[in-house]
Amino acid sequence: MRQRDQKQEHTGSYYAATVNEVTDYPVLEGAKSADVCVVGGGFTGVATALTLAELGYSVALVEGNRIGWGASGRNGGQLINGISGLEKIGKKRGPDYNQMIWDLKWRGNDIVYDRVEKYGIECDLKSGFLEVATKPSQVSYFDEFISEREKHNFPYEYEVWDKEETRTRLGTDAFYGGFICYRDGHLHPLNLCIGEARAAHNLGAQIFEQSPVTGIEHGDRPRVKTANGYVEADSVVLAGNAYSLLEPKYLSNLVFPAGSYIIGTEPLSEEVVSEINPRDVAVCDLNEVVDYYRLSADKRLLYGGACNYSGRDPASIKAYIMPRLLKVYPQLKDVRIDFEWGGKIGIVLNRVPAVGRINKNVYYCQGYSGHGVAPTHVMGEVMADAVAGTMERYDLFADVGHFRLPGSQWVGNQVIALGMLYYKMRDKL
Ligand SMILES: Cc1cc2nc3c(=O)[nH]c(=O)nc-3n(C[C@H](O)[C@H](O)[C@H](O)COP(=O)(O)OP(=O)(O)OC[C@H]3O[C@@H](n4cnc5c(N)ncnc54)[C@H](O)[C@@H]3O)c2cc1C
Prior knowledge:
There is one protein chain. With about 425 residues, the protein is α/β, with parallel strands linked by helices. Helix content is about 35%, strand content about 25%. The chain is built from 14 helices and 17 strands. It is globular. The two termini are about 40 Å apart. The mean pLDDT is about 95.
């Protein structure tokens, strides 16, 4: 079996440079025991551990690097409702499930807002997420966004901005209009993840860092093994997402790692901020491969986008992303770039997160297809439900069949893109 044995500190992101707490949980050594062992200290693992700790379970969370080291500590920080593939599940299940699907769609936002308040997590959480049309045809999507909200008596504010209003509020001609929802928003994801891990720890969860899990010995009480120790638990939750190589017999060729990249400018002057984003909202376009941006708390423009499945990061992330930024804001051509980084998102061909269990007591949940800040929080709750024996929401996801693409670690961009296109066309039929 391939093993992960490299332990790494955080990547050189804006987030790592501005953490509230530098975590230093111990390395797992010797024999430990818990009701539940969670593998992976990103949002999925931390949200699962925190939900279980709140329910009174004893939890051990084992992270190979640092809390939030993966996509959770590197992402665009855009808090966006929904779960990739959820509509597909709704269609399959029929109208009886409409309310449940709608509740799931917003549950992640609720959990994040509640936890930030309950545990006093300082993560620069701000309300407002704007979806922008880069083509005139995309403006029609806004009618759909409005009608679903009206149908469910959505209690939060939203607005449609026409081309002129979008131009005035964003200081760019690049877009044909926007839809803003104030229940969505943006935040410092690494500080959120670290704050939630601290909350779980304060409730008694054991946390281990720099402890890559090398394998799992299955049984009534599976044993989660690292180089220097192990945890025995009644249940295990695997939350390594695009970075995990565990359980290849069951999980390989299911989730495909794809690179996404962000650059962070120097802090912008008040004048520039008032020109390009005075309302301080998160912005994301409506394309298949999205570009997304927002301001940090210290008014840097964090601009991200692109997606590649080759496994090779570009030689210069700045050179890769800067032309995209300049297409929207040519006036920033002389701005200094202080940060550039990338991370792996977990793509699933049919876009539904891959959820299931191996040998009755080893659960897994991975593959958010690039949209995970809110969804991971819902799935943490869904995994905790399942461990506690409540399977209703878990079954919605676990019942979805997934196609495996054999040898996907070698086939590269085109074949994976083709696989996704196949599913997209099938959905349209
Ligand atoms: C650049 C970028 C921008 C993004 N922007 C957004 C955005 O703006 N909004 C949004 O909603 N989503 C965004 N996403 C997606 C989102 O970040 C992810 O979907 C989400 O963070 C996934 O969380 P996770 O906990 O499942 O995985 P991760 O955060 O990747 O965590 C997995 C963890 O498991 C650990 N691990 C793996 N294998 C082992 C092992 N064997 N032993 C121990 N530990 C192990 C890893 O070290 C890692 O810390 C973005 C992703 C990227 C990369």
